[in-house]
């Protein structure tokens, strides 16, 4: 025994323990992580939602909307306009006209252009639209704060059909009337009717905050309201609605403050109107909705949670409310659906209730004394009445990542353990040189792939033009080419080590760096977009361990390679592309137009990590 | 030694034998050093030291403790007899060196030149609080120049500029020379020069460490190391087993390709110029040009007040250089006070020059020195001050500022005393501590001193928690902008998010520095006491702890 190494007996013992129990702990950790996650919506672990911000006082005000007459007036007026001229007269000008001339409030239009970020065929290169925005100034307030109520003029229905948002727009008028006549508003109300769905709302928000965008050119706004505290987005494809669905998910996994969501749910309950998350599943329909709080349903809760996580993981906003979240404005979308046909009387009642719900929500937000800051910003919703907070779901993520952490520790110990340092007997500078040669080259090659994918997409599309391919098809070709490149790399490129080099050492360091970069990547993403990180971790935790493991059995080897191919992000891109042609292309476009980084992050970091794993697996 | 009594050898034969062996050994070592060291100065140094060595041996012959000394020499000779492993010849190595040097420099410059084309990245970096601190922000410098020249008022109007007048004038001159648009090329040039300086300084540091160790070895200081049971031939450093060429190249690469330094270069922070001055200090110090080195340190101390404590480790270096040259040091206190006085005089001169540049207006004193010491600007950065001071009640602030600032100045003297035989490690640790405890730290400063870690790579096997703080530093670096965004961008988080990360980052740095310190002490212990684990009072093997 000597003092030449840093290891103490304690450390050696720890090392032995890690080596001995590591594999067991890894497997245990991974599966217990998954099991724990599945148990999260269970009665014992779940918490009921509550309103944290005292000032909101949901449902305490008496409504100022007494009849449906004016709503139906506006609705029919708009409907007539929509039906007469093949839908062409139901446009921004008409809405602007009503705001300015009938309601007599400040109203303006805003022109904007969308330039295609990549090359595409001429006719779809530039599209333009027109937004309307109107201000209901608070009469007795100083106009330092405001609330936005937005509604897209047209919604996209099934099969890309354009549906007019007639009821949503008519509600804007009703609320504008209230804003004009009532003295109790403490915040300006800003009404925004947007053209071209998300492009329009983005153009408006960009101009409002004067942020620059390469692809959306928008006219600057003529006037503004106070700082925006909250935004509601109304989407009603039909006036015949008996259920509200609330959409939350914003860009890059952002969510609005849970208080806002709770307020709406609370108000709906007090109005006795059915309200839920978007496509919320509930398998036991026995309970009466108007119970104080419905009982926990574990299975449907889990289903809803995973559903929400899928939507969050893509990073694409679920609805137009998402674009407000980018600017720190709490926002959600209220959309109406029809679950059963209603009689005329019932329909009238529903319309009144919906309008009152929106009004009541606005007046709750109107009560706010400070920005939304209480309650949760990081949560998952198994149902509209229960939530899972970050403190509950993060341990599951940690447990799933445990195998990678244990592996890192094991590799670290094997490299720098006592025995190893004693038997080294080689000059340190040459050793470092070997390691650098072996490790850096591998990483450089892998990260080149990522950089090519990240920066090269427009060039690939340009290249496709030469072969008369459409932009969409050349995207697919780009993936295929990259995949072929990466798959072949380990066979072309064999890391050359100096003949007397320490091969295992270099390999170990290589493995260590891959696992560390994977952990850092996933850990970082988990802070921003938990769902995306969670799904990546579920996949990559076992795959990465398996990839760096030396396997001699032939069957196991093929299994390993098959699993690795399945984990390749590009394979997924191609598969999704084949299934959802246009949607995926829009997803790629969204990363350029709306700063949604899911696609780019995966390209820039996950693809290189995967390709390093792939190269290592064949070494 | 001269006071020891003379005793004659009875056995003339063994005496002759030993003399012969010593001579052979010495010649051997001189040959080796000749082939590896190009610098004439160090060659001279070696010759000198070996001359002294031989004289010493003659003294040894005459000492009373004859047997033990013979034993030492014998073990040293045994030590030399270990078979040498094949290593590339020095010419091949120097070829590698020049190729590696030019290649790394060219690649570093190329990366920087490519990156400056990305305007959005540059703008983003220029606005990052971690890089553009009040002391180093380029925007502030531009503002200062504008105030001075276009509005004809003081640069320090509005408490926006915190650089000393000298530097503001320098930047103004540069902008006139290059135009504001092209000034980035100057920054790239400075960054490349910094990397070259890092290279030369690391080379000097390693060389010095090797020479020192050889010197002590030949003086028999490490006798007990050769008596220990388990012998590690490459434990003591020489230029054979710890190549200055390679490690200094690695240090240069560490500087050039460190993302922190890249970010600093992109964002045009003036910290690069501060680094340049600091590196000039180190360079002159290690080259023995004491006055010049103090001059640059005086400028740096005027820019960032904290670096004035670096005079203490500089004196440590000078002391050891004197020992190496076998100059007798009469009184260490005398030496220290003499150097201290020189430095203070120089610093005062630099201050007076600035005073003169400001037309003897005292305003700048409050905007530079007191701004740093009083920590008025609490915009978040990677340091430890802002959070505590924002959270604190006003009437406690003065007290806690004293406590916090004391941290930066406190460790200098004790560390120098403890590490008096390892002045190079002392330099590294002290620069690091300074950057951790200063009021407006910049991530580029971490990038600077971590670049010197390859110089102490020999401590690596003795360090304990490398994985822990490596992960902490990486996590801190990656998560800082993200937490900042969660707090002030998306609004989901709060100040604690960012504070937690800055804490992780700072604690990681402190762990790193403490571990370097610990490893250095342990190495010193082994060198002096041998590698056998000593037994404690209870008869069990003693453990080595840092207390």
TrEMBL record, chain A:
One of its GO terms (biological process) is attachment of GPI anchor to protein. The chain crosses the membrane at residues 21-42, 392-415, 474-493, 513-541, 561-580, 601-618. It comes from the Eukaryota. It holds the Pfam family Gaa1. InterPro entries: Gaa1. Keywords: Membrane, Transmembrane, Transmembrane helix. This is Glycosylphosphatidylinositol anchor attachment 1 isoform X1. It comes from Brachionus plicatilis.
TrEMBL record, chain B:
GO terms for biological process: attachment of GPI anchor to protein; GPI anchor biosynthetic process. The keyword Kinase does not apply. InterPro entries: BORCS7 (IPR032143), PIG-U (IPR009600). GO terms for cellular component: GPI-anchor transamidase complex; lysosomal membrane. Keywords: Endoplasmic reticulum, GPI-anchor biosynthesis, Lysosome, Membrane, Transmembrane, Transmembrane helix. The lineage of its organism: Eukaryota, Metazoa, Spiralia, Gnathifera, Rotifera. The keyword Transmembrane applies. Pathway: Glycolipid biosynthesis; glycosylphosphatidylinositol-anchor biosynthesis. It is a multi-pass membrane protein. This is BLOC-1-related complex subunit 7. It comes from Brachionus plicatilis.
């Amino acid at each position: 025994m000597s003092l030449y190494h840093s290891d103490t007996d304690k450390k050696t013992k720890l090392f032995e323990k890690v080596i001995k129990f590591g594999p067991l702990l890894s497997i245990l950790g991974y599966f217990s992580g998954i099991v724990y996650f599945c148990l999260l919506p269970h009665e014992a672990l779940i918490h009921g939602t509550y309103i944290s911000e005292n000032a909101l006082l949901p449902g305490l005000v008496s409504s100022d909307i007494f009849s449906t007459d004016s709503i139906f007036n506006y609705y029919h007026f708009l409907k007539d306009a929509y039906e007469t001229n093949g839908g062409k007269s139901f446009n921004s000008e008409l809405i602007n006209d009503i705001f300015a001339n009938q309601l007599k409030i400040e109203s303006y239009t805003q022109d904007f252009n969308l330039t295609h970020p990549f090359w595409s065929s001429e006719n779809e290169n530039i599209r333009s639209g027109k937004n309307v925005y109107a201000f209901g100034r608070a009469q007795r307030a100083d106009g330092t704060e405001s609330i936005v109520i937005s509604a897209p003029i047209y919604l996209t229905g099934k099969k890309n059909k354009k549906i007019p948002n007639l009821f949503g727009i008519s509600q804007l008028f009703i609320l504008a009337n209230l804003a004009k006549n009532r003295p109790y508003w403490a915040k300006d109300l800003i009404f925004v009717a947007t053209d071209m769905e998300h492009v329009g709302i983005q153009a408006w928000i960009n101009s409002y905050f004067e942020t620059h965008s390469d692809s959306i050119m928008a006219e600057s706004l003529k006037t503004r309201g106070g700082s925006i505290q909250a935004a509601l987005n109304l989407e009603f494809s039909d006036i015949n609605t008996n259920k509200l669905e609330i959409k939350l998910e914003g860009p890059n996994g952002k969510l609005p403050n849970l208080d806002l969501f709770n307020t709406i749910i609370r108000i709906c309950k007090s109005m006795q109107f059915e309200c839920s998350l978007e496509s919320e599943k509930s398998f036991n329909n026995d309970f009466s909705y108007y119970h104080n709080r419905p009982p926990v349903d574990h299975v449907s809760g889990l289903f809803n949670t995973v559903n929400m996580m899928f939507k969050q993981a893509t990073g694409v906003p679920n609805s137009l409310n998402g674009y407000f979240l980018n600017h720190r404005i709490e926002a959600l979308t209220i959309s109406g659906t029809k679950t059963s046909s209603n009689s005329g009387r019932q329909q009238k009642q529903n319309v009144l209730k919906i309008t009152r719900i929106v009004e009541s929500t606005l007046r709750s937000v109107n009560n706010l004394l400070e920005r939304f800051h209480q309650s949760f910003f990081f949560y998952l919703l198994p149902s509209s009445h229960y939530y899972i907070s970050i403190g509950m779901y993060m341990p599951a993520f940690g447990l799933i990542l445990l195998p990678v952490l244990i592996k890192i520790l094991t590799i670290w110990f094997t490299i720098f353990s006592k025995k190893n340092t004693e038997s080294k007997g080689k000059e340190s500078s040459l050793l470092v040189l070997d390691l650098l040669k072996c490790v850096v080259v591998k990483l450089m090659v892998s990260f080149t792939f990522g950089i090519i994918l990240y920066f090269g997409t427009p060039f690939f599309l340009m290249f496709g033009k030469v072969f008369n391919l459409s932009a969409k098809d050349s995207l697919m070709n780009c993936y295929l080419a990259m995949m072929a490149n990466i798959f072949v790399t380990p066979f072309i490129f064999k890391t050359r080590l100096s003949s007397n080099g320490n091969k295992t050492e270099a390999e170990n360091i290589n493995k260590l760096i891959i696992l560390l970069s994977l952990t850092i990547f996933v850990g970082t993403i988990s802070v921003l977009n938990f769902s995306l990180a969670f799904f990546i971790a579920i996949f990559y935790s076992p795959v990465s361990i398996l990839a760096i493991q030396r396997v001699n059995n032939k069957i196991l080897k093929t299994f390993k390679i098959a699993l690795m191919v399945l984990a390749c992000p590009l394979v997924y891109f191609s598969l999704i592309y084949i299934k959802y042609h246009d949607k995926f292309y829009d997803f790629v476009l969204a990363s350029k137009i709306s700063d949604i980084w899911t696609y780019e992050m995966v390209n820039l970091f996950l693809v290189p990590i995967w390709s390093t794993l792939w190269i290592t697996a064949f070494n | 030694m001269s006071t020891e009594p003379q005793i004659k050898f009875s056995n003339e034969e063994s005496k002759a034998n030993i003399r012969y062996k010593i001579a052979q050994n010495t010649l051997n070592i001189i040959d080796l050093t000749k082939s590896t060291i190009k610098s004439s100065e160090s060659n001279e140094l070696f010759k000198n030291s070996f001359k002294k060595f031989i004289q010493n041996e003659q003294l040894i012959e005459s000492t009373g403790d004859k047997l033990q000394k013979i034993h030492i020499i014998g073990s040293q000779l045994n030590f030399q007899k270990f078979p040498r492993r094949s290593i590339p010849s020095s010419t091949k190595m120097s070829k590698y060196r020049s190729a590696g040097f030019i290649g790394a420099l060219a690649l570093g410059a190329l990366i920087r030149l490519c990156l400056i084309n990305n305007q959005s990245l540059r703008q983003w970096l220029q606005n990052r609080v971690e890089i553009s601190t009040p002391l180093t922000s380029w925007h502030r410098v531009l503002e200062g120049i504008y105030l001075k020249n276009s509005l004809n008022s003081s640069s320090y109007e509005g408490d926006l500029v915190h650089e000393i007048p000298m530097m503001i004038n320098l930047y103004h001159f540069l902008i006139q020379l290059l135009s504001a648009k092209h000034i980035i090329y100057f920054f790239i040039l400075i960054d490349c020069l910094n990397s070259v300086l890092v290279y030369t300084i690391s080379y000097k540091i390693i060389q010095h460490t090797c020479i020192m160790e050889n010197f002590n070895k030949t003086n028999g200081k490490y006798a007990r190391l050769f008596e220990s049971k388990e012998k590690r031939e490459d434990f003591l450093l020489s230029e054979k087993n710890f190549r200055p060429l390679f490690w200094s190249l690695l240090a240069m690469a560490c500087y050039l390709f460190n993302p922190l330094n890249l970010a600093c270069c992109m964002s045009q922070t003036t910290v690069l110029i501060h680094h340049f001055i600091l590196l000039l200090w180190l360079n002159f110090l290690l080259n023995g040009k004491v006055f010049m080195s103090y001059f640059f340190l005086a400028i740096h101390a005027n820019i960032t007040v904290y670096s004035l404590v670096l005079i203490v480790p500089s004196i440590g270096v000078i002391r050891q250089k004197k020992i190496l040259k076998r100059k007798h040091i009469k009184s260490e206190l005398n030496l220290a006070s003499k150097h201290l006085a020189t430095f203070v005089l120089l610093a005062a001169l630099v201050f007076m020059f600035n005073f003169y540049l400001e037309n003897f207006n005292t305003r700048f004193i409050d905007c530079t020195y007191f701004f740093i010491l009083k920590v008025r600007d609490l915009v978040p950065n990677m340091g430890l001050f802002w959070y505590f001071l924002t959270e604190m009640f006003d009437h406690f602030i003065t007290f806690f500022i004293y406590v916090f600032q004391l941290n930066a100045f406190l460790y200098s003297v004790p560390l120098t005393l403890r590490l008096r035989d390892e002045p190079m490690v002392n330099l590294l640790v002290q620069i690091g501590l300074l950057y951790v405890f200063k009021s407006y730290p910049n991530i580029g400063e971490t990038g600077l001193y971590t670049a010197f870690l390859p110089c102490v790579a020999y401590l690596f096997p003795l360090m304990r928690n490398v994985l822990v703080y490596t992960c902490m530093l990486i996590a801190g670096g990656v998560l800082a902008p993200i937490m900042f965004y969660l707090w002030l961008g998306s609004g989901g988080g709060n100040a604690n998010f960012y504070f937690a990360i800055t804490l992780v980052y700072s604690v990681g740095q402190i762990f790193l520095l403490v571990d370097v310190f610990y490893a250095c002490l342990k190495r010193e212990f082994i060198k002096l006491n041998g590698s056998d684990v000593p037994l404690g009072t209870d008869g069990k093997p003693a453990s080595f702890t840092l207390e």
